[in-house]
Amino acid sequence: MKITVLGAGRWGSLLAWVQNQTGRQVILWNRQDELLAEWLKMGKNKYLTLPSQVKLTADLALALKNDIIFIAVRAQHFRDLCLQLKKLQPKNKLFILAMKGLEEKTGKRLSQIFFEYFHQSNSLGVLAGPGHPQEISQNIPTIMTCAALDQKDLPAVVKACQTPLMKIFPQTDLLGVEVGAALKNVIGLAGGLLVGLEKKSFKSYLLSRGPVEVGNLIKAMGGKYQTAFGLSHLGDYGATVFSGFSYNHQAGELWIKERKLSSIAEGLPTLKAVNLLAKKYKVKMPICEAIYKIFYGNISANKFIDILLKRKTESD
Question: What is the number of other CB atoms lying within 10 angstroms of the CB of residue 148?
Fold first, then answer.
């Protein structure tokens, strides 16, 4: 099996490393920048060393020669990448989206953006769930989920994603997997806020109520409510809401300490997107609304818990 990974950040490089561990031929692409220059010079980052069999390149046409292509760029850069890909007119490829987020300005899912440019000329899958390069690179296994736009492609997506270090449980609800995976980053921001506020025990509220409001949004959008309680959302809390490794968790802590917005936490632009979606679908999302008010509404983070405790009922 020949695999390409687009994006040489910490997750993309981890995917390339894991795929190589299985004996698959791997191309790791990144745009020509300082990150790629560092990879070409050092062949490693602080998490792992890439074996020489992994081919590093900035040549997108070369990267598209393989039939299975993982995409692991930041969600807000995805549309730009699609524009680059479209120029090369890829056909009959299996693309697997391995990043989590919603488009900030439109609230669109990444699969929706993909098919604005490629229609039905390629197959599409999504990989989601818990996983940290810091742990997987130390041969600590994880469990993840995947979904496909066309169910006939799901076995191929599972086969491509499954490795000895990544156990895959397939899901039929692509919409739910995408939305749940994106919103776990938002809940991760709240986890960091609570640590910064020294109120970690209130994470139990996030654990019990977060999947409920996310499930309500998924259902309103046409997906399955119960998907929020699976690996793509609730199953990822351990790696996001309760883990200091998470960029989103770190972003919440940073806001408390320095009142600065992280430039790398996907939860922040996704927070704007979910604010749009909650209004569009008329779904009550008190946790997400409270987080939005803190980061973008000039509300003190000290009021986070107070806002949530003022709710009159837990039945919705």
Answer: 24
